[in-house]
Structure formats: structure tokens, C-alpha cells
Specification:
Shape: elongated
Domain HAT C-terminal dimerisation: 133-181
InterPro entries: HATC_C_dom, RNaseH-like_sf, Vacuolar_transposase_reg
Protein name: HAT C-terminal dimerisation domain-containing protein
Organism: Mya arenaria
């Protein structure tokens, strides 16, 4: 690669290679021997590196981030029992989310007004963690909407899940050039 080895340039080059060599999907009958071999090697290498069948993979932060990205939340690349492990991991994180998240726009520390004693009879009960999660998982998604934008538009519908989504999806992928990773500046 003559250009800088940034994440964007590497991703662009990989996409060019995938298109050029027809590396989408599994080997087909009309693939040349070289292309079929490359697809098989690439798939085997990815399986070896990321080990999608291991419990540790299902309980990893990247899998949690995939579950919280509405475009990939079905986790169709994982076996069913591992998908369930990832769901359980998210449920555990949701248990730690406070029931009501206070928002203080002005920094005022005034005490809140007293709630009428019978208010519980006229207000909807607060949804449970399981309800929020099941509603999110059942929601139909538009594959084109970026995750953070989707969560911004739907934060009121899934108040507990959005708290975990913000903490997990807010971690940016690095764009540090690979030269820096090796210690060369």
C-alpha cells in the first residue's frame, strides 16, 4: 500500500480486494480454483481468529456491541445458544441500570415535588428490564440507519437499553495509523 496505513485506507483496500477477487459469500461452482481457495482460506482464518463458536466470544464486548447495533442485533453469525449467552450478558448489564435516570439541565438541586399518593393508579407502570429488551429485540429495523442515530431517535422507547447502548457504542474504533501501533512514530 503506497498510501498511509490508516483504518480508512486499509478498509478501502480490503473492499477493493473483495470486489476484485469475488470473495463475497461461500465458494460457488463458477469460482475459479484460486478464488474458491482464497474464500476458503479467508473464512478459515476469520473463524480461527474470532472463534465464533466459543462461549468467551459470545460474552465479549464486540458481541454486546453487535447486539446493541440495531442492524446486527439478530446475531445471525452466532449459533442459537451463543446468541442466548449474549442476550443474558446484556440482561445482566441492564440489571445495573437505575430505574429512573435523572436529568438535570440547569444543575438545580431543588427537592422534587411530592407525588400524589394515588398517582400509581393513573400512570403506566414502569417497564421491566425484560420488557425493554424483548421490545428492542422484536423491533423491525432499517438496515441503513447507523446505530447511534437509531438510538438517538428511539431513546424514549427503550430507556434502559439505551443506557447500556450509550456506554458500549460510545467507545470509538481507533483510527490510529498502524505505524503507531508498532511503536514507530
Amino acid at each position: 500500500m503506497p498510501e498511509r496505513h490508516t483504518a480508512e485506507n486499509i478498509a478501502s483496500r480490503l473492499q477493493e480486494c473483495v470486489r476484485e477477487f469475488g470473495l463475497t459469500g461461500k465458494p460457488c461452482n463458477n469460482d475459479t480454483a484460486l478464488v474458491a481457495s482464497m474464500k476458503t482460506t479467508f473464512r478459515d482464518e476469520m473463524t480461527e481468529r474470532f472463534q465464533p463458536g466459543r462461549d468467551e466470544t459470545a460474552e465479549s464486548l464486540p458481541m454486546l456491541a453487535s447486539l446493541l447495533d440495531p442492524r446486527y442485533k439478530k446475531l445471525s453469525f452466532l449459533p442459537r445458544q451463543l446468541r442466548r449467552r449474549t442476550h443474558t450478558m446484556l440482561e445482566g448489564r441492564l440489571d445495573d441500570v437505575p430505574f429512573k435516570v435523572s436529568s438535570r439541565d440547569d444543575g438545580d438541586c431543588a427537592t422534587p415535588a411530592k407525588r400524589p399518593r394515588l398517582e400509581f393508579m393513573v400512570t403506566a407502570p414502569e417497564s421491566s428490564v425484560e420488557d425493554d429488551l424483548q421490545l428492542y429485540l422484536a423491533e423491525k429495523m432499517d438496515d441503513a440507519t447507523p446505530a447511534l442515530e437509531w438510538w438517538r431517535r428511539n431513546e424514549n422507547r427503550f430507556p434502559k437499553v439505551v443506557q447500556v447502548a450509550r456506554s458500549v457504542l460510545a467507545v470509538p474504533a481507533t483510527s490510529v495509523p498502524s505505524e503507531r501501533v508498532n511503536g514507530r512514530y
